[in-house]
Specification:
Blueprint: H1 21-34, H2 46-53, H3 57-70, E1 73-76, E2 80-83, H4 88-112, H5 115-130, H6 134-152, H7 155-164, H8 177-195, H9 199-223
Antiparallel strand pairs: 1-2
C-alpha cells in the first residue's frame, strides 16, 4: 500500500507544452514524478498541483486518471492518488509497447501520408534540429509523432497510444549532444522510409526509435539516481 510523504510544491514552473489543460497537467505531473519532485509512494495533493500549474483541480483530476492508465499513479479509495514506484522493467515494458504499436502506425501511415504531410513532417524534423530548449524539442516531437499517427488513420491504434502517453519527458534523456544527434538521425530515417513509401522500413525505424528511447531513458534516470533510496 502506498504511503504518504510530504512534497514541496511551492515553486512555480513556467510551462510551454502542447494541448489542452488536461494534457498540460499530465505532462507536468509526469515530469514531477521522474524529477522525483513527487517521490515514489507519495500522496499527490491535487490542490497544490493545481495551484503550482495555475489551473483548477478539474483538469488535474482528469490528468491523474490518465496517469493511472499509464501506470504512473494509483488511486486508493478514500485516500487519494499516490505515485507508483517504477522499476527499470516497467520503463522497458512501456517503451516496448510504444515501439510496436507506433511501428504499426508508421507502417500504415507510409502508404496514406500525403506529400503535404511529408513536407510538414520534414519541416518539423528541421525545427527539432534547430530547437534551443528541451521544452521546444518536446513540443515539436509531440507534433511529429502526432502527424504520423494521424496519417495512419487507425482510430484503435491512436486510442491505445493516447493511453500509453509519453513515458518519460524528453528533457530527461535528450540532454547530451550525442543523444540529441542520435534521435535526430532516427527521425531522418523515418522520413526516408516515408519518402520511399517503404512500409517495412518505416515500421522498423519507428520500433528502433522507441526501443532506443528506452535505453536513453533508463541510463539517464539511473545517472540521476532515480532508483536510489
Amino acid at each position: 500500500m502506498a504511503k504518504t510523504t510530504s512534497t514541496d510544491l511551492s515553486t512555480p514552473r513556467q510551462l510551454v507544452l502542447p494541448g489542452n489543460l488536461k494534457q498540460i497537467a499530465v505532462a507536468e505531473i509526469r515530469r514531477m514524478i521522474f524529477a522525483r519532485e513527487l517521490q515514489p509512494g507519495a500522496r499527490i495533493e491535487q490542490e497544490a498541483i493545481a495551484d503550482q500549474i495555475g489551473m483548477s483541480k478539474i483538469p488535474v483530476r482528469e490528468a491523474l486518471s490518465a496517469l493511472v492508465a499509464e501506470g504512473l499513479v494509483e488511486m486508493i479509495p478514500r485516500r487519494g492518488a499516490f505515485v507508483v514506484p517504477l522499476t527499470k522493467q516497467d520503463v522497458e515494458d512501456q517503451y516496448w509497447l510504444l515501439a510496436h504499436i507506433s511501428g504499426r502506425a508508421a507502417e500504415l501511415a507510409t502508404q496514406k501520408m500525403t506529400e503535404d504531410a511529408l513536407d510538414e513532417l520534414t519541416a518539423l524534423a528541421d525545427a527539432m534540429e534547430r530547437a534551443a530548449t528541451p521544452s521546444e524539442r518536446q513540443e515539436l516531437t509531440f507534433r511529429f509523432h502526432s502527424l504520423i499517427n494521424h496519417a495512419a488513420d487507425a482510430p484503435r491504434i491512436t486510442a491505445v497510444l493516447r493511453i500509453l502517453g509519453s513515458p518519460i519527458p524528453v528533457e530527461f534523456y535528450e540532454s547530451s549532444p550525442d543523444t540529441v544527434a542520435d534521435v535526430d538521425a532516427e527521425h531522418r530515417a523515418l522520413l526516408a522510409a516515408f519518402r520511399t513509401r517503404s512500409s517495412s522500413a518505416a515500421r522498423s525505424a519507428m520500433e528502433q526509435h522507441f526501443l532506443g528511447g528506452a535505453e536513453y531513458a533508463i541510463d539517464a534516470l539511473e545517472a540521476q539516481g532515480f532508483w536510489n533510496d
